[in-house]
Amino acid sequence: VYATRGGNFARTMVRLAAERDVLRVIDDQVGAPTGADLIADVTAHAVQRLRQPAADSLSGIYHLAASGASSWYDYARFVLTEAARYRQLKAGPEAVEPIASAAYPTAARRPLNSRLNTHKLQHAFQLVLPPWQQGVQRMLREILECG
């Protein structure tokens, strides 16, 4: 989950690409970058629908994520491709090297596949979730045009 404000993976990649010649990014973990704004919008839509008569059938647990999937490596390359439209970078998308999770140990263990099945949510609330790239482009545009 990312937002325009605060720190996030995309901001870190842009900062590092301005400082370094090469970036090494994990390529064996897959998920869907999802904006906090999308989560807020879908939640507001769901709450509105749940207030309507006969909404009892909509109760339950739902998964929410932008559509599509990406490894951190692919996400980094996408971010740098987009960021290059706004800024001069020392390292472009071609300078991102894929590495395995084992080469970048962290305190928190992360699943290799964190994709979520959103079909129930989309069907129940009659939604089409946007591709992850759309939200990332919007977030980068806001971040890079303003600062």
Percent strand: 5-15%
Strand order of the largest sheet: 1-4
Name the overall outline.
globular
Structural class: mainly alpha
* Major β-sheet profile: 2 strands, parallel
Structure, explained:
With 147 residues, the protein is mainly alpha-helical. A two-stranded parallel sheet has the order 1-4. The chain has a two-stranded antiparallel ribbon with strand order 2-3. The model has no long low-confidence stretch (mean pLDDT 95).
Please write out the topology.
Blueprint (H helix, E strand, L loop, with lengths): L8 H11 L3 E4 L3 E2 L4 H15 L19 E2 H12 L12 E4 L19 H6 L7 H15 L1
Brief digest:
The protein is mainly alpha-helical and 147 residues long.
Short key terms for the protein model shown above:
single chain; 147 residues; mainly alpha; two-stranded parallel sheet; two-stranded antiparallel sheet; 5 helices; 4 strands; 40% helix
